[in-house]
Write a structure and sequence with these properties.
Blueprint: H1 21-33, H2 36-53, H3 55-68, H4 75-82, H5 86-105, E1 114-116, H6 121-129, E2 134-138, H7 145-152, E3 164-168, H8 170-183, E4 189-193, H9 199-210, E5 214-218, E6 233-237, E7 240-244, H10 246-255, E8 259-266, E9 276-282, H11 291-315
Parallel strand pairs: 1-9, 2-5, 2-8, 3-4, 3-5
Antiparallel strand pairs: 6-7, 8-9
Length: about 325
């Protein structure tokens, strides 16, 4: 049977456009040699180069921006989404975010530039202060690495050093993860490969949460190991149903730990002096439930996450960094 070239791929099957280890190693060398402001300036031509030579990134950016535009409340932002130059703005914003990720893990991002809101952050801080483990569901909207990086450097208003465990796809993120270890070898940051999640993972995470660990996982990507449409949660997102991973939210319910949704969003998509708003929302759902009820609770948890993700996406459309067809049932 002839392979269809246009058949959609799962997001994890796309080549890592951040390239190989040596390309990222070059970024690390430049980061150590030049002031951060120079790195931010360099991000603009790098983003432009990526825009010119990555047709897939341009096409996927345009797809998302066209879907988001009708929901965007600000007319000027909606106009930028519909503009032919919208994808360029989107990709340069992504380029700047990569620099800020490195800056955060290198301990050079100023804590004063992160503005916490009048939401559930105080409760999160208090639970961490009391040595309680928490489960954070994050996304590829904005830059959640700021929170993980600052926590690793003990700069999150919590007096104790907070251990961090991130559940991530190592196939896609291995080069960046390797660089993070070079930036901060003393980091309390631990990684669990999302591709290897099984019954043993729950036991490991339960132990870590009992020891006051902050566990993070992105809720806006599905597992490459999920087969069949029936095993994905189809949830309305920007006017069309999109697949969300049931396993992520079931795992959160299974842990019975406090669950928070966290979003870190830049003030100004293309600012070279970035300041971020950190939004923290605690789930109000009860996870003390029977085995049958866990599936219902995990579906409700996924719905809550998708609703918040949509709200922040239409406020900050150029900070959404999932460059693939998010709505495809194969995604």
């Amino acid at each position: 049977m002839k392979k269809t070239e246009d058949a959609p791929l799962h997001w994890s099957q796309h080549k890592e456009k951040a390239a190989g280890y040596w390309h990222i190693k070059l970024m690390l060398i430049l980061f150590r040699l030049f002031p951060v402001v120079i790195m931010r300036v360099i991000a603009f031509p790098v983003g432009f180069f990526y825009f010119l030579f990555s047709k897939r990134a341009r096409d996927e950016s345009k797809r998302f921006l066209q879907k988001a535009a009708p929901f965007v409340a600000k007319p000027e932002t909606a106009k930028k989404c519909r503009s032919p130059f919208g994808p360029l703005r989107h990709i340069v914003s992504f380029s700047l975010t990569l620099i800020e990720k490195i800056e955060s893990w290198g301990g050079k991002f100023q804590f004063k530039n992160i503005h916490f809101q009048n939401d559930d952050v105080e409760e999160l801080i208090q639970e961490l202060e009391n040595g309680k483990g928490v489960f954070l569901i994050t996304s590829h909207l904005g830059n959640i690495e700021l929170l993980r990086g600052l926590a690793s450097f003990n700069r999150t208003r919590v007096s104790r050093k907070t251990p961090i465990t991130a559940v991530i796809d190592m196939k896609v993120n291995k080069n960046f993860s390797r660089m993070l270890k070079e930036l901060n070898p003393q980091s309390s940051f631990d990684i669990i490969n999302a591709a290897e999640i099984g019954p043993h993972t729950a036991v490991i995470l339960e132990e870590k949460l009992a020891n006051g660990t902050m566990v993070t996982i992105a809720g806006d990507r599905t597992s490459a190991n999920t087969d069949g449409q029936g095993k994905k949660l189809m949830i309305p997102f920007l006017g069309e149903e999109a697949p969300f991973s049931p396993g992520i939210f079931y795992l959160a319910v299974l842990m019975k730990a406090p669950v928070y949704f966290v979003f870190a969003l830049r003030r100004g998509d293309l600012s070279i002096k970035p300041e971020y708003d950190m939004h923290v929302h605690k789930s109000s759902l009860s996870f003390e439930c029977s085995r049958k009820e866990r599936f219902t609770q995990s579906s409700l948890l996924a719905g809550s996450f998708a609703e918040l993700l949509q709200n922040y996406c239409i406020q900050n459309p150029f900070q959404w960094y999932n460059f693939y067809d998010f709505w495809s049932k194969e995604a």
